[in-house]
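hey so u asked for the seq, here:
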Amino acid sequence: MRTEFTKKQLENPDVAASEKILRNCVHCGFCIATCPTYVLLGDELDSPRGRINLIKDMLENDRDASDEIVTHVDRCLSCFSCMSTCPSGVNYMHLIDYARVHIARTYQRSFEDRMLRAFLAFILPRRKLFKLAVIVSLFLRPLAPILKKFSSLDRFSALLSLAPRRLPRMKKIEVCVPYKSVGRVLVMQGCVQPTLRPEIMRSTINLLTRHGFEVMISRGEGCCGSLAHHMGRKEEALKAARRMINLWTAEIKRTEFEAIIITTSGCGTTIKDYAHMLRDDPNYTVKAERIAGLAKDIHEFMVERSFRPSAHVPKLRVAYHAACSLQHGQKINSEPYHLLKQAGFEVIDVPEGHLCCGSAGTYNILQPEIAEALRSRKVSNIEKVLPDVVATGNIGCINQIAAGCNIPIVHSVELLDWASGGDMPQIMEGRHATETVVDTESDVLVG
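ran it, structure tokens below
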């Protein structure tokens, strides 16, 4: 694509990076067919190609963001399906991220919108506050259908409808010393996952320990910056990223470890992008690259370290939902399938697996109508394959799909833990109460 930025404009490093991305686009249109919002709405301005044109016009002409641009950029899920199909290597992820920063700087949102976004940015990254908010939402959840009748309150309705019907059973998470140590890893806890699905952390620790890894839990961590980053709150995102880099760098100085294990793929995508986010900060460039290089999704790590099942579990039909941040953002596609099949499950492809479920961080709250339509489409496709359970690698997807689906949905690490001698996932108890036979002669199991 031809661009006409001035030398003065290109002195801004973000504009210069955007200009390089824009020049890679050849307007082939391959991205359109795989864009969820275009598939739903049929408007080219709600496709990557359409948004690219809007962003180019805005940046080239030094324009403040308009209502039209904000509408169509806000509708983008940042699922990055377009990047998986683009033959020209257009880094749409970095382009849309900067467009959101430009919008945050130049556009005055409504008071209601500003307050909601500020509320989400403040509550979600803080575990104690988030847990309190979830407890309050348990009592307010019945109001969701009533609020949905009022268009001005639909986003508050969506917020309440996504709340769990009950808090999960809390069990103490213990870290054991493996029988035979083969290495040491640090496990990231995340922001909302410990409250919504604490069993994911427990299963991850058990799985890693049984495979001989000494597990360290990342203490004192905050938000990785993903939430603020995708809302265009650049300074908040960079502050969070620096804090995490400082924390993990200090951990490395105390005790060496070979990987930072991440079970929330949305966080993983952002952390692996730290080097780009902090490319202009000389105090963090090298440290950011090191942390980004250590970041490993649990699926890719277990494939690299040769997952070994040690228990005979029922051959259940597992519909694997590929989280967008995993398949498109991190290019981790075959690993989850391979692991689940190796564990002894029958893994079923979900039709239209490349399309987003509508979660996308805070998208299902900020764009509830589109998110609900995408969820309905995803649930319909899942139900077509008649699975016993749905597995995925992202807490946002779990929460989104569970809100509209009666089939149990778990993090795939819970199934892998079960297949290596752990407990059946809590949500499946009573549905598939079949005895699990453990291979007690395995030298990787922890007694």
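The radius of gyration is 22 Å. The longest strand covers residues 183-187.
lmk if thats what u needed
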